[in-house]
Fold these 3 entries.
Entry 1:
Amino acid sequence: MTSTKNSLHGSVRVAGVLAAVATAGTMTTALAADADAANYRDGTYTATGDYTRPGGPDKINVTVTLKKNIVQSVSVTPGSSHPVSSRFQGLVAGAIASQVQGKNIDSINVGKTAGSSLTPQGFNNAISKIKSQARA
């Protein structure tokens, strides 16, 4: 019985040490993530995002208002002269706010939206440019 009791206490001690190490590791990771997190100046920024559609290069215009790294508002203006591309850009423009408003700009990476898989690439390109402009 003594070896079972010692084994049980040893297991509890090991589990406690592992939990403490895991917690310390999580705290270290969280602190490192905070240190690596970018800070952006509050304000309104505009950029043109470039992407390639089957017919060639295209662009989309994006305006974002930031406050404490959070997207407060977003506006997308079609920049294409190609009728099909312009139509998709308009659809994306109408759907994008619900995906990005209220989110940290560093977490934004829009995928297929409103049936368009290419226009979001231009949007993400514009967001990258806006992040460069706004970096504190």
Note: The chain has two domains: 1-36, 43-134.
Entry 2:
Amino acid sequence: MIMAMHLRGTYKCAKAVWPIFQKQKYGRIVTTSSHLRTIRQLRLLLLVSLKHSALKAVNTTFCAMLLRLQSESAGTAMTMTVWPQEMIDAYKPDYIAPVVGYLTSEVNAETTGQLFEISGGWAAKTRWQRAGGDGFPTNKALAPEDIISKWDVLTSFDDGRATHPTSSAEGMQQIMGNLENKASIAETAVETAKDAGKALKAKL
């Protein structure tokens, strides 16, 4: 039931209106996810996976059709059992609807393929962030020691090189660029000699 509602339900609704959008060359889709998808609540792994799939499923555009996803929390029958009444009141749909209204309006013609978090009267656009990372030569063996020597670089978001990929193409740019990262003949020869030395030492 969870998959039918959270994932297939999103797909079926979008599919139903798509021919209409194609015919009129115009349309708006705003689908909902959950903040659980954003913060990755591992205790609710299935629900998180389905919510994430809902985001990926609508991350596309066609003609003048704009697709957005909102990730919100709400006062529901489930949360009423654990949340105080004051919090339930603050999480009413009344504080979500205005954001949805603007996202679907003709005035907003630029926002597409993006994620917004809306909770308790607070709203914000959310994005992915990736550290600048580092590339290693693709024609020589990569050892754990190589990773250790670059670990601070691989995990730093504060060196001014962090990126915010918004598509698969952007996500692959640095990876594809590293395919040309080749070690020199001298460096390769040194590595080969080291490996041979280690193998000989192991036999002795």
Note: The two ends are 62 Å apart (CA to CA).
Entry 3:
Amino acid sequence: MITPLKQPIVFELEGFHVPPGYSSFLFFLALLNYMLTLLGNGVVACIIVIDKNLHRPMFVLICHLVACDLIGATAVLPRLMVHFLTGQKKIAYLTAIAQGFCVHMYGVAVQTILGAMAYDRILHASVKQGRGDSVIRSKAFQTCASHLVVYVLYEIAAMIIIVTFRFPSVSQNIKKFSSILFIIIPPAINPYYLRTGQ
């Protein structure tokens, strides 16, 4: 017989080991990162929505990437800020499920969107390439290069996660930070790499 779970279920998170006196500084860094993410991605989304010339497939994909970045950052950074500021390491069951769902969907969606963006640019370049214009090819390469940089950032973050967990001598704080690196850094810098060359 299965016993039902008793509510409320609360998980105790390991969290970061924050040396005394550094919690305010780390909170400020996380807040700055979150504000940069909200501002940069919000500006990109507003420009695409307002400018009718940008209502094309590539910019729709960029809007999806912006929304994805906002969801991913919002799933992790506010909780991280609470941890740094108050030292609270408990999370409710439903909150943990929602956070896990958002983080995993973020990872899948970002990879899918970046792949679709690269495919769109390749198709666009191959259609234009029929004319043999080297300027068009150069512009297409610049566009693909910026998307490639964002993709490589995600892959580097994933590689750091794998490498740090292979070495037991690496500090726990570094392992924990590397495991959320892919959701902290790229959403904050995506708006600055998403040049389309158009």
Note: The first helix runs from residue 23 to 50.
